[in-house]
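Quick one: structure tokens for this chain, please?
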Amino acid sequence: MYSPFIMTYKPNSERLKYLADKWLAGTISTEEKIEFDEWYLSYEDHLVEDFSAERLQAIESELYWSIQAKAEMNQSEQHHRAYHFKKVWYWAAAILVIIGIGGFFYTQQQTPATTAEVAIIKPGSERGNLRLGDQQAYNLDGLKNGVLENRDGIEIVKTKEGEVSYILREKGALNPKNIIESSISTPNGGQYKIQLSDGTRIWLNAASEVKFPIAFVEEQRVVELQGEAYFEVAKDRKRPFIVKTAKEKVTVLGTHFNVNAYREEAVSKVSLLEGKVQVAAHQSDYSTRLQPGQQTVNGSGTVRVESFNPEESIAWKNGDFVFNNETLEQVMLKVGRWYDVNVEVDPSIAKIQIWASISKSEQIDKVLRLVQLASDQITYRIEGRRVYMMAK
């Protein structure tokens, strides 16, 4: 069927404001959504700029709570959450472009931080440190690509893709006595990718560390993790792969899963995306086998199994913040790690629930502005590399 909106149609400013108002009111029709959609896909820089600063702020708040309401659903609908999440935020982007905000919940009007203060705080990047058992250490982000070490036929290589790979050149000549431990750690504001000698790949989040032998010669492939990492484990039925954290042991044969085990957080989580894993808690005899889409939540002396949204679990790996009803305190732990800033949260607002999504490549002020919109009780201030989340 021919559509009058394809390719060349560009509604005028009044029409766009009319459609935006109908979307916010929940009365927009299917045909009007198509019209709005075609405009958004062909968007070039024709912004509507005749809103006052007060009206912009009111629309931001109204839109936030409208999106929040649309995203809420009961537990029986949880498997649809990813679809609703993408759909709702897509329309948010379109409406905010229309009213001249230029990004998710962000305007160019004065905010609680100056341009100079924001400029010194950069988003995180590929940064890490490699240490070998003999205490030799490398600052990975300061090194050129290529072979860093050759130990007993095992090459340690920094690739152009921003990954450290452990490559076996002489598989039959490994001497267990020469297999030393290696570790890769990331600072606040850093993350890194690793490929182990068996082909297993690890994505290491900020402020995390993983320890492992430069080659696996035992009957089990054992690594130790502090912090958060996503694993894609190479299959080897004869040698199970084991991840040890301060709270649990995860045993797998070949699978994809995420482990969040920061020591400063009250709970740790093991989230399974593909395959099967066995999770055993250290503080008790509790042990369970997870199915894809399940995760263990280990904290306060108890362990429970619950469903989760895979998209949310690995959003950090894919370059996004996704906060799904997390407390302000939890949210700011993640923000502080990624931007390498010290954060102080007023205890009176620490438990306010946040629901939001934004790219981790954005300036910190955009992230904080989005968080601020979650409640009319929140404001913030940036001083150097310190962020204060305060009650209004």
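Residues 1-9, 44-50, 73-87, 97-111 have pLDDT under 50 and may be disordered.
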